[in-house]
Amino acid sequence: MHRALTTDIESLPELLRVRAEEIGGERFVRDAEREWSYEEFAERVREVAAGLRELGVQQGDVVGVVLPNSPHYLEVWWAILWLGAIFNPVNPVLTPREVVGILSDSEAKVVVCTAEVAAGLREHGEELPALREIVAAEGSDPAAPLRGRGSVGEHAAVRGEDLASFVYTSGTTGRPKGAMLGHANFIANSWQLGEPLPISRGDTLGMVLPLFHVNAQLVTTILPLMLGAQVAMWERFSASRFWAEVARFEPVTFSSVPTMLAALLHAPGAEEAEANTLRFVICGAAPLSPALFRRFEGKFGLKIMEGYGLTEGTCCTTINPFTGPRKIGSVGLPTRAQEVAILDESGAPVPDGTPGEVCFRGPNMMHGYYKRPDANAETIRDGWLHTGDVGYRDADGYFFLVDRTKDMIIRGGENIYPREIEDALLEHENVREAAVVGRPDEVRGEEVHAVVALVSGEDAAALEEHCRERLAPFKVPSSWEVVEELPKTSTGKIDKKPLREKLAAAAG
Fold this sequence. Notes:
globular; 26 strands; Rossmann fold
């Protein structure tokens, strides 16, 4: 019988130290080329920390990381934490100017990155006055230049309230903002999410989402550390190789976004996938249509645990239970020690079943946005974090998302929520992906425009009739566009910004 693991832990470096002492010989992380035990991983972290310390990294300094997924990424990230410094992850596919904008805002003093990113940063050195060192990856091991300088034995004296990460939001409503997340935020949200998930010590969690995103950081790195579980890493998501990787790594679950689940329905190996080791799938980041929910569960016999959360809430705020009622279309119930409320424009609660803004508070709520008092005042009011999402709570306490406030279409004074139309479209068997946006119109202000990717054919006439059978006339799209694939963000969510820009340009 396993000895119980320590649960009274205040910081992330303490978590790694304690787990390496308790279960050091058990496997922690692997990918297609390597695997490390808890003890081996901790020693590698201490070695990389020595290299960072030699570069002058001290407690409280910001260190940028611009790398693709690999176990080496984890070494660099946790070495930063070991020194009590602040981890600043950046999407490696951003342009040099975008990377510079984030690193300049965060005032990063050191950055560990790919050789390509390093070249771009050197071209813009004058825009990064705080940056002292650029550590460029050598081959496939970005931590290699930091090794060979000894080992940092003891981790920094870090408290729960100390900052652990600056994670920048995607910037869909303006320039990216750095959410300041503390060690206590990550510790609290790990326990909050770990409680409803059926994961035990030794289980393997598959990591397919990118590590610059809080989901991969918390759900498939910190949570396994909390529970004594294992991490199996894909470098990136690929539908064509996914089921083969599941057979190789034998995970019990993985975190996903809806577009991934849609792609996996017809991916190679899908017909044999019912015999795999997966027990359930976590889905979040964007609303999951009821039609896709039913297709995926019906085909693979896997429970989908749909949840909801923001970077500003560390990761997870609500989730459907594994045991007990799961409501299709709902993002579930609040996790323990979080309060979630639906508030009107004055900040007052609305009755159950009435749409309003989704707001939450709890120990996982960010410290605020770095150097953005204006955004902090707008987002955090009376102790509640205002998400900008429209939703409602039903009589059983389950929460449902209606749409983003900014996505709402106003047609001749009527408020139209695109998600309702998208869900209706996805019920049609020939629709693979759908996005609905407002098209500028001189008479009504906006008209409903649908962009769809079809399984076969290019005829949208049948879709219009399909919508008329399910929606009020003013919600039926008045214009249509058929594309091969919808634009996506770096985390796989459908990106509506290019669609709106195209319509705005056409309207002059």
